[in-house]
Here is the input.
Amino acid sequence: MAYPTVSAPYGFRPINSIGGTPYAGSTRLVPVDSGAVFNGDLVELLASGKCAVIADGTAAPQALGVCVGVQYTNSSGQTVQAQYAPSSGVSNVLAYVVDDPRALFQVAMVSSGTTIAGLGRTAVGRNTSVILNSGSTTTGDSAQAIDDTTDTTNTLPIRIVDVIPASATGTDTYVEFVVKINTHTYNNTTGI
Here is the structure.
């Protein structure tokens, strides 16, 4: 069976840790400051101790991890567990965040917006920014992706660790990559 075509970004999906240990579902429940948050969104830790979707895809020094689901209270007072939390009409929003600084994620690459792009294996070991597309209120999934422009700037939030071989669209062109958070808040020695 052929690997499905990657036609749109889907956010960050946890796959394992830098040492190869399989992802076992470990998360931390973190209060959300404000705004919609989707499954697969990269979130940052704020000075309030709460999290929010990263505000800047080119420099996120307080990146905390990836949201993999939410819990909130709806207008009827019911607790809801869902793929995403809307930006209004809900309260007590908590995000399930994969916050392990050694966690690795699978993510699609775009040239801009949601236009899928690819790079060769030479992208491995380089840093890149996050494209902050809005998530889908239909599926609850993020549409964040990584940019196809890579370099060695140490403030860029994402480090490319490997390629997803099954996503190859040519001899040395890949559209999905294994990444880690380069600017994780737990590795920030100065704190918030």
Q: What stands out?
A: The chain has a mean pLDDT of 92.
